[in-house]
Write a structure and sequence with these properties.
Alpha-D-Glucose-1,6-Bisphosphate, Chain A, domain 4, 26% helix, single chain, alpha+beta, two-stranded antiparallel ribbon
Length: 186
């Protein structure tokens, strides 16, 4: 008698293979989400963050990146040269961050009255940047991930927010400034 694995068993094995096979090679600034639909099909979504290239050595860009985090008031919690990654978790923001309205930094949806959720709640952001070689220079990929806790709410009703790219651009501009270069895109 030949036994055939069930569809749910195959889905579980496929999910394990995807997760186990990908975790070792995932760049530090890559965010991955796995979705398993009702039929057991596995979908993987990836967000690489926003990148900027600099005509400088990887080491010089690294030093500028660490300094840029400080310049922006982010005081990096981790700076790991083994994977060339700088990060800061749980950056708290309310209404304005370093002179910029939080609704310009994040898209979190709107309240019933049409106000931006980003402006009427507590933002909690995680920021990661990684330096990689790029031709004769180096590339910085920055990933910002955030949630908003609406006023009067708790962390159990936090809403996920999308980054507008403004915070990443400000960080990349600070890196360019430290390198004595024009900001990427200018």
């Amino acid at each position: 008698m030949i036994m055939h694995p069930s569809r749910s068993t195959l889905a579980a094995v496929a999910l394990f293979a995807v997760v186990a096979g990908c975790t070792a090679s995932v760049p530090a600034t890559e965010s991955q989400h796995h979705i398993v639909d009702i039929d057991g099909d596995v979908y993987r979504l990836t967000d690489q963050g926003i990148t900027a290239s600099f005509p400088a050595t990887r080491q010089d860009v690294w030093k500028a990146l660490v300094g840029a985090y400080d310049d922006m008031g982010l005081s990096a919690e981790a700076a790991d040269t083994s994977i060339w990654t700088v990060s800061r978790k749980k950056v708290l923001m309310r209404n304005v961050f370093k002179g910029t309205r939080t609704s310009r930094l994040f898209s979190c949806g709107e309240t019933a009255t049409g106000s931006s959720q980003a402006d009427v709640g507590q933002i909690i952001a995680n920021i990661r940047s990684q330096v990689t070689p790029a031709g004769t220079g180096a590339r910085v990929a920055t990933l910002v991930d955030a949630w908003v806790i609406p006023d009067g709410g708790t962390s159990s009703n936090a809403l996920h927010c999308g980054s507008t790219g403004v915070l990443e651009a400000q960080l990349h501009k600070a890196i360019a400034s430290r390198l004595g270069q024009m900001a990427p895109g200018e």
